Amino acid sequence: MAGLLRLSRGIDALTAFIGRTASWAILAAILVSAVNAIVRKAFGVSSNAWLELQWYLFGAVFMLCAPWTLAQNEHIRIDILSSRLPERARNIVEMFGHLVFLLPFALVMTYLSWPFFRSSFVSGEASSSPGGLLIWPAKALILAGFALLLLQWLSEVIKRIAVMRGLIEDEYAAAGHAAAAEAEVERLLADEPRHSPPSPPER
Questions:
Q1: Is 106 inside any structural domain?
Q2: Could you tell me the pTM of the whole model?
Q3: How far apart are CA 203 and CA 18, in angstroms?
Q4: Residue 83 is assigned to a structural domain of this protein
Q5: Are 115 and 72 in contact (CB under 8 A)?
Q6: 107/167 Cα distance (integer angstroms)
Q7: How far apart are CA 52 and CA 46, in angstroms?
Q8: Looking at residue 182, what is its pLDDT?
Q9: How many domains are contained in the chain?
């Protein structure tokens, strides 16, 4: 199990590095959008390549940051329900979700994304819009995103088994999100400067 946990940590490090790097594409997309709008308004010039680059960048963020999101336990869940379950039940629910929902989805999408990308790459598929970009890099992002999600699935299953066997602690307990939110609210309230109420005006 020690070897599997080392593999899990390696996968987590990989998806975190890729996710953090890809997150900068948000800033790039904002800059591209702003420059494109300024040039179009100021000089009456527009480019389909710049327009398509925006959704390429947003697509990169969505696909490449999804595995990192899963690793950080920031994916959508019903905390109000899971936080009330005993630890054993939460572990069963987690494993059920990983095996019955996430694994088939990631496998099927990775399997289907390969020929989708390959045919586009071999043919040199490009946008039908004048001056548009090549299409295959966008399809490569889809393949890479689901392949990384499949890797992260493996890491999550390894960690969940280790938690169930008592080898590691559950770093992201089901109640963690709610507790963290409550703690943050309490901290903000505690840090908020306390101003005395204004005195009534003199008559």
A1: yes
A2: 0.75
A3: 66
A4: yes
A5: no
A6: 28
A7: 12
A8: 53
A9: 1
d(CA 127, CA 202): 73
Give backbone dihedrals phi and psi of 127, rounded to 5 degrees, phi first. Answer: -65, 145
Print the domain residue range for 90.
2-172
pLDDT tens digits, one per residue of 137-194 = 999 999 999 999 999 999 989 888 888 887 777 776 644 555 555 555 566 667 655 5
Res 77 pLDDT > 80: no
For residue 152, what pLDDT is reported?
93
- With respect to residue 100, please indicate whether it lies within any of the assigned structural domains: yes
Structure tokens at 178: 């709610």
Nearest to 109 by CA among 70, 139, 143, 132: 143
pLDDT in the model for residue 47? 80
Residue 135 lies in a domain: yes
Q: Are 1 and 165 in contact (CB under 8 A)?
A: yes
Compute how many other C-beta atoms are within 10 angstroms of the C-beta atom of residue 106. Answer: 22
Residues 6+ apart with CB under 8 A from 152: 11, 12, 15, 67, 68, 70, 71
Tell me the longest C-alpha to C-alpha distance in the chain: 86
